[in-house]
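Example: Elongator complex protein 3.
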Amino acid sequence: MYIAVVAVMCKPHRCPHINMTGNICVYCPGGPDSDFEYSTQSYTGYEPTSMRAIRARYDPYLQTRHRVEQLKQLGHSVDKVEFIVMGGTFMSLPEDYRDYFIRNLHDALSGHKSSSVEEAVKYSERSNTKCIGITIETRPDYCLERHLSDMLKYGCTRLEIGMLKKLD
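Written out as structure tokens, the predicted fold is:
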């Protein structure tokens, strides 16, 4: 059984680590303050997912529709989709943006325009193309109970946690 992996990027935003320390980590070359125009914090903008996101102006609906269509044209099955939400610490973004982003991922699969994340997830579950998982990039300090509750609401099944130092 094939699962189509669809990587999408949230809009460029400043890493919360910069606000706390004033420093940019060496492994995060991008972001709004970098030389890489329009890139997200932990990417340069030259990665395939970054380039697709830039072309779609970071619109989650368009990123999803374009990538699913591309995979179909390449002969891949798209009955089951797993999203990877890239672009840095997704959970540090405002809740209304996160809800908009996740809602549009699900809506892009179902073709339904939902008014809430919960509605979008329900339609996505009944769609011909189903979301079977979501991976979210985040940091240890954005894995608190309130963040985990939101991630479960979104349909998150896996976390990719970036460590800033060995003691995190």
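The chain has a mean pLDDT of 84.
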